[in-house]
## 1
Amino acid sequence: MRKPVVILLLLALLLSGCGGGSRAEARTRTVLAMDTVMTLTVYGADSDRVLDAAERELHRLDALLARGQEGSAVYAFNHGEAPEDATFSLLLETAEDIRASTDGAFDPYLGAVLDAWGFGSGAGEHRVPTQAELDAAPRLLDLGGIAKGWAGQAVQGILAEEGVTGAVLDLGGDVSLLGGKPDGSPWRVAVKDPEDTASYLGILETPGGCAVMTSGVYERYFEQGGRRWHHILDPKTGYPAQSALVSATVICEYGVWADALATAACVLGADGALALRARLADRIPFELILVTDTGQVLYTCDCFTPAKDSYRFERVT
Ligand code: AMP
Ligand code: MG
């Protein structure tokens, strides 16, 4: 599913120490893909060629994965065809793996259910569907919860091959970090405050080689019957997840997992997300920053430094 065009301040990057000086010279490119304004910043590249390649890949993935676009692999798949595209096959396999690993909390087949709520690619009206509509919804592939993570990971791969020494890929607030900063200091990523999205609730410091992906119930929603209905659905009910989490940030080496796990965490809730982290520790290690609807922030790593008095922060394992 495609997100509206918004310049998300989700994770404002603090690039202090990266300006000026030839060694630290950055090349940047703004790309509009997946209905998202993306900003690519690379260090150690001697021409724009590498940014051209990154941009091409983002547009290629956009065209491949857009569910509502005739000609995309996802469109073909949802119309009973078997698209022969290596990237699509790999992504489908990964999505299935994540679905199994999250006990179905991440479900790539919610397309028709999302459409019924008006969160789908058909740009239908937002409304609460009837139970009969939800029951009758066919299983249609929707990779909206995973596409940007995949894109970040894919572009990271291209940049690494081209000899880029460091890069920040800001895909509408979801961030992929490659290599190190030119001055050797850690990357610093501000984690957005879901209550006040222009500010941040803490700072994450990381040496790079990871993705920082956030899912939040505030990102897309509508109001009906005096209630808010958001876009992260609980696959068990077909209704917006009611897990008491308002946002989940995942830090993981693999962008595609970071993206999917952030969505899954919003479905699973704090206890479920922490249990999942423990369960996957040997295979896909990741860190979590979870914000609850009662103003609590649970975080699993010392790389996160709280920065807001209005929340109760708790370091957990
Ligand atoms: P994200 O912003 O990464 O959390 O992705 C949210 C998008 O993922 C939604 O707009 C839907 O397209 C899709 N989605 C919603 N709920 C789920 C779910 N439980 N599993 C997988 N994808 C979902
Ligand atoms: Mg996600």
## 2
Amino acid sequence: MPESAAALLERARRPVSLSGAGLSAESGIPTFRDQLGGGLWSQYDPAQLATPQGFSRDPKLVTEWYRWRRKLVADAEPNAGHHALAACAEMVHVTQNVDDLLERAGARNILHLHGVLGRDRCIGGCGFTEAIDMAEPPPLRACPRCGKWLRPGVVWFGETLPTDAWTAAVSACSACEALLVVGTSATVYPAADLIRVAKQAGAKILVVNTATSEASHLADVELIGPAGELLPKILSWAL
Ligand code: BV8
């Protein structure tokens, strides 16, 4: 099966990848399914913390959660899955992930639908934003411009996606001949809807996941296994 997926991806024009937390799992970054794992934080529900309400209820707790995640990413390395995707120079990488592991693997054409951990921005909307040091992420602090809190530059549940990234992602998925769906439960919208957009545009849908997911019923080819193992196989022509 991997050989037919490889052939399909090699000849596809304007290929697109759509990735989720499973792509970074082998780099040691817990997925949302795993309740973003580890010790202290496993008692919290990410869907509650990753919301404006969660932040306004307890800005210090939410900021500490992001500090923990930022340090995890800073200590992590891109895995073979990130490197295989990065080797596909023509591929547009639409990701739900907020880490920078695709960038650090050398990938270009990356669209972060849900923002990035590497920046803070003002909660008050004064427009202040700044890059942060992921290895030494700052604690909860006030915006130097207006005094309101600074928050991570990510998209929380109930917040709209960045227009540029979303528009570019819809356009790429509407024109691709193959969409490679990697490591996502495909349960969060509107990101998950991109699979239907690509399918309706006539693209072949290839799914790589360690389990079946909400993407399975749309798959032309579904490969069950870890992204770090399967992606180098089906993208070997690019490596
Ligand atoms: C919005 C950033 C408009 C923050 C995240 C219909 C239409 C529109 C909206 C909605 C809708 N229905 C519901 C909504 C609301 C909501 C939503 O989708 N809720 C869900 C829970 C039903 N959507 C929103 O709020 C979005 N905004 O729609 O704006 C709007 C505005 C106002 C009011 C209404 C609408 C914003 C959503 C963005 C939220 N932010 N992240 C942060 O990171 O802290 S979401 C976050 O969770 C991720 O970005 C990702 O998108 C999602 C988790 O999904 P996955 O990445 O798939 O990860 P998961 O753990 O679920 O699965 C991992 C998979 O990997 C598994 O399948 C596993 O088997 C696999 N795996 C594991 N290891 C491996 C592997 N695969 C391969 N190899 C491995 N080694």
